Amino acid sequence: MKNINIELLDRVSEEANKNPRKRMNHNFHDNGEEILQRMLNALEPGTYLPPHKHTEKVEIFLLLRGKVHVLLFDDAGEIVEVKTLDPNVGEYGVEIPVGIWHTIFVEESGSVIYEIKEGPYVLGVGIEFAPWAPQPDSFTEVENYMNSLSKKVKELK
């Protein structure tokens, strides 16, 4: 049996804090071949998850602690929906349909999601990154983009 408890969440969050990308995965599946991919994603404010869409599979996020905003975009990169996940107010998760541009904007330190996807996992297959969003290694562009997302999230809440 694999257990999800406060010690595990704290450990993965600590690793995310130390990681320059401000996030850390903890996989429950043994390899990419498994039919059901299950993982924790510890996310810290400032992490950049490039907007993307899955072309073949649904993605499920369940927020175990913290506060995040799930942003959905149209094909031009405009935010069409913001869903705030916060277990303290009874908002626990979302299921993202195939073909929907999305990202997560992290509001609270120590946020951890449990993510579920259909496998197998093959790097780069079944995912498209948004052409209108900056590449992760374009640091100034990412910072400007994240600041604009923050403003838009505040306006739309």
Polypeptide structure, described:
By secondary structure, the protein is of the alpha+beta class. It has one domain (6-156): Jelly Rolls (Sandwich), CATH 2.60.120.10. Helix content is 20%, strand content 36%. The strands form three sheets. Strands 1-2-9-4-7 form a five-stranded antiparallel beta sheet. A three-stranded antiparallel beta sheet has the order 6-5-8, with helices on one face.
Which key features would you list for this structure?
alpha+beta, 5-stranded antiparallel sheet, 2 helices
Percentage beta strand: 35-45%
> Based on DSSP secondary structure assignment, what is the total number of beta strands?
10
What is the gyration radius calculated from CA atoms? 15 Å
Helix content: 10-25%
Distance between the termini: 39 Å
Described by the principal axes of the CA atoms, the overall outline is: globular
Largest sheet features = 5 strands, antiparallel
Helix-strand blueprint:
Layout: H1 6-18, E1 23-27, E2 36-43, E3 52-54, E4 59-65, E5 68-73, E6 79-85, E7 93-96, E8 101-106, E9 111-118, E10 127-129, H2 139-156
Antiparallel strand pairs: 1-2, 2-9, 3-10, 4-7, 4-9, 5-6, 5-8
Compose a concise summary of this entry.
This protein is an alpha+beta fold.
